[in-house]
Amino acid sequence: MPDTKLTPGITANRLPEGAYADNFSDLHPPLDDHEALVAADRCYFCHDAPCTTACPTDIDIPLFIRQIATGTPEAAAKTILTQNILGGMCARVCPTETLCEEVCVREVAEGKPVLIGQLQRYATDTLMAAGTHPFTRADATGKRVAVVGAGPAGLACAHRAAMLGHDVVIYDSRAKPGGLNEFGIAAYKSVDGFAQAEVDWLLQIGGITVDAGKSLGEGLTLDQLQSDFDAVFLGIGLSGVNALGVEGEDKSGVLDAVNFIADLRQTTDLSKLPVGRDVVVIGGGMTAVDAAVQSKLLGALNVSLVYRRGQDRMNASQFEQDLAASKGVRIITNASPTAVHGNGSVREIEFEYTDDDLTPTGQTFRLAADQVFKAIGQTLQGEGLPNLDGRKIAVTGAGRTSIAGVWAGGDCASGGDDLTVTAVAEGRDAAMDIHTQLMGCAG
Questions:
Q1: Core-most of 251, 307, 358, 441, by most CB within 10 Å?
Q2: Is the distance from CB of 43 to CB of 69 less than 8 angstroms?
């Protein structure tokens, strides 16, 4: 939490009673039974469906929508969860507008896709509400798998490995599992404690133990894990935050966006979460948008999101950019920070306009700010890691690293696109490869 003694512009309880619940309500309210049937009826059930090809987890989308249309949403959910065990969360946070729905035949022909994401949520929510788990464990293999990191990749790997009969221990540095699903996404995308409910449901497969408060270098070493387990999967994410690298960055009120979002997700009373009057978010990805929008929803008067490149280069989808604009966030592009000004606490932040190739133009401007959030990317942290490819763990095939018996996936591994759904696919596929290796079936 920010030190409000040093930053008087940052205060809590900016909004009237009731406004917080309204502002942080479900971004996409769930479909009811009738709405789901109407939405499903729009699907052409394409044989060579482009939506399935666009899904990183290869869900058979026409099949699960047909199952909804025929009144069997639980069967639809099993179709989804067989490929994506975190299908409920992915239905909420996936940028479907740039994946399955973007290539939907209805979108191409009419400009209005089938509501694939919302239908996926309808199916998975229906099954989870029934309190059942559609998968059972295979006979015990006697093999043990360590999973480091309880985010989407680690959870997907753990579930699939447990389902195949292996005993799994998940280690995570935080007090509870979930990773970015629990700590790193906007609160209005996952309401009513869904992230933890999904983890609890996933663990019903059995054979998985969660050991919290441990990470590589903090209670764990890769050598010891290799000694104690038959295979190790690293899904450690990117826990370090890049620095701005400008004068005054150490002033009070300059914060990491990921920590702000985590605090917001874990608070039990949003009215007690301090936020500035004039907030500036630096970055152009989903984290930047989530921090900017939620600052506005907490009652910040002026919120600006500043990105060093053009708007077409922002990692945040057009939907996310439009959402930010609709909430009153001002988006400024082609500008890089050069200095943070203030006497102990931030009061202004100075920027310089840049060309598309990031060449400084010499033109500068300042924004009033009592709170600045850094969302300019995260870095890999951990001791004794396998070989790196740039700033991430180098992997080949289904997540194999330079160390025999060690796999990696999710944001910490090279080659992915830093999406929840991609992390799930990588964790699932690594578990299948681990199983093949452990059972002596490798080619």
A1: 307
A2: yes
Among the listed residues 42, 246, 30, 54, the one whose alpha carbon sits nearest the alpha carbon of residue 128: 30
Report how far apart, in Å, the C-alpha atoms of 346 and of each of 104, 196, 367 are. Answer: 47, 36, 11
SS3 state at 147:
strand
Looking at the structure, do residues 275 and 313 belong to the same domain, yes or no?
Answer: yes
Checking if the pLDDT of 8 tops 90, the result is: no
For 247-269, b/e burial (b = at least 16 CB within 10 A) is ebbebbbbbbbbebbbebbeeee
Per-residue pLDDT of 37-55, as tens digits, reads 999 999 999 989 999 999 9
- What value does the mean pLDDT take over residues 405-418? 92
Owning domain of residue 160: 144-239+380-438
3 state SS for 350-375 = EEEEECCCCCEEEEEEEEECCEEEEC
Specify if 35 maps to a domain: no
**5, pLDDT greater than 90:** no
Give the tokens for residue 283: 């970055």
| Domain at 418, CATH number | 3.50.50.60
DSSP of 307-352, one letter per residue?
-SS-GGG-SS-HHHHHHHHHTTPEEE-SEEEEEEESSSB--EEEEE
- In the three-class reduction of DSSP (H, G, I as helix; E, B as strand; rest coil), residue 306 is classed as strand
Confirm whether 363 is domain-assigned: yes
- pLDDT confidence of 386, banded at 50, 70, 90? very high
CA distance linking residue 275 with residue 286, whole number of Å: 19
Q: Which of 76, 40, 38 is nearest to 59 (CA)?
A: 76
Write out pLDDT tens, residues 77-133. Answer: 999 999 999 999 999 999 999 999 999 999 999 999 999 999 999 999 999 999 889
Can you point out the beta strands (E) in 184-259? 208-212, 215-216, 219-220, 231-234, 240-241, 254-256
Which two tokens mark 273?
A: 């979460």
